Amino acid sequence: MKPGEKGEVTATFNIGDRTGTQVKTVTVETDDAANPKTVLTLRTIIPQQLDITPTFVFWKQGEKPDPKAITVKVGKEFTVNHIKVTSSSPDFQTKVEETGKGEFKIDIQPKETNSLLASTLTIQPEDSPKVFYATARITGAPTAPVAPAAPPAPVAPKAPTVPSSPAGQTH
């Protein structure tokens, strides 16, 4: 190109699993002695398709195995009418309920809490290759704090003993 002419630079950015603010730079090198390098800064915000809260639920060992809820909200830039949830362990059951437009509730429930168990929940929006994850776990029951050793019981003072009469003495 001759000085003063315009051109076009094409850069490809693979989003992958990135979300939030992303900043990338492209360095353009020219034979212009005054400006041999120009750095172009690309700044973008990649929206999150699903907001999952919490991503970790747990029960203590021996706790009543009541269901716990995970809330899923669809990002405003996306349309998701259904989500599929699978558990990596058959010891945890899941149920998905739509609670509003773009909002879902996942109930996760262990069959029992006597054993230490864990499960990865795979959450996938319909018609999307992207997957999200949450974890369900049964943790060890907390142990009771060890009580400090009791101080020794106080010893009652002995009653004074009456000296016996010297041998051979009578009254």
Textual characterization of the structure:
The chain has 171 residues and is mainly β. The protein has a domain of 90 residues: Immunoglobulin-like (Sandwich), CATH 2.60.40.3450. The strands form 3 sheets. Strands 3-5-8-7 form a 4-stranded antiparallel β-sheet, with no helix packed on it. A hairpin with a 2-residue loop joins strand 7 and strand 8. The mean pLDDT is 86.
Which key phrases capture this entry?
about 170 residues; 4-stranded mixed sheet; Immunoglobulin-like; about 0% helix; elongated
Task: Summarize it.
This protein has a domain at 50-139: Immunoglobulin-like, CATH 2.60.40. Helix content is 0%, strand content 43%. The chain has strands at residues 20-29, 37-46, 50-53, 56-60, 68-74, 83-87, 92-100, 103-110, 118-125, 132-139.
